[in-house]
Fold this sequence. Notes:
Elements: H1 2-24, E1 29-35, E2 38-39, E3 43-45, E4 52-53, H2 55-67, E5 69-75, H3 78-87, E6 92-93, H4 101-104, E7 108-109, E8 114-116, E9 118-123, E10 137-142, H5 146-151, E11 157-162, H6 165-173, E12 179-183, H7 184-193, E13 198-201, E14 208-210, E15 213-214, H8 219-234, H9 237-245
Parallel strand pairs: 1-5, 1-6, 10-11, 10-12
Antiparallel strand pairs: 2-3, 3-4, 6-15, 7-15, 8-14, 9-12, 9-13
Helix pairs in contact: 2-8
Amino acid sequence: MKKLVLLSLILVVLGSLVVGASSCSSAPLKVQVATDATWFPFEYVDSETGEIVGFDIDVMNAIALRANLDIEFINVAWDPLLAGMAQGTYDCAISSITITAERAEQMLFSTPYFTAGQIVVVLKSNTTFTSKDNLTGDVGAQLGTTGAMEVEKLSGCTLKNYDEIGLAFQDLMNGQISAVICDVPVARGYVAANPDELKTIGEMFTTEQYGIAVAKGKEDLLAKINAAIQAIINEGLIEEYSLRWLS
Length: 247
C-alpha cells in the first residue's frame, strides 16, 4: 500500500513538472509575410526550385528564428502589397520597402535594416546621358516605388510605370524607353546579368532605408521584429547576407 501511495506521489510530481515545462515554452506565433518576389536579388522566385529566395528572405527567416515566429511568405504584386498592409490583410511585409512618411501613416515600420538609393541604368551604347540631370524621354520604374517618384521629379522625362522591374529592363534593352531608375543593388544585378547591353550612369542620388512593414495594431509583433533585427545586426548577419546576395 505504501508503495502504491509513493508511486502515485511520484506520478503527480512528474505530471506537474511536464505541465510546468510546457507552460514555459510558447508555441511560435504564426505570421503571414507579404513580399513582391520580382525584385532580384532581394526577393525573387528561384526558377529551379520555385521557392522565394533572396537577401530579404534570408533576413526575415533569421528574424523569425530569433523572434519565435512561424512565418508564411505570400507572393503578391507591389501595389496590392502596400494596399494589403494598409488594410491589415497581412501581418507584415518585407520587400525592399523604403520607409517614407506617407507609408508610415498607413502601416508601422521596423527599425531600418538596410540602406539603399536610386541610380540610372541606360544602354551600354548610350553616350548621350551622363546622369539623371540630362535624361530625356520615357524613363521606366516600377509602379508605386520611390524610383517612380524620382522619375516624376525630372524635367524632360516621362514616367513609364511597370508592374515588375524586369519588364522595364526588357523594354530598355529593346529600345522602347530611354532609361530605368531603381534601387542600386537591383540595378547592379541587372547590369551584371547583361554586361554587354546595360550600364549605370552617375552616382546613387538618394539615400533610403528599408524597413519591415507591420500592420497597425500589431505593436507586439513589431517589438519582436525590432529586437530580432538588432540581434542579427549584432551577429553580423546583414553583412553576411550582403556578401552572399549583393556582391
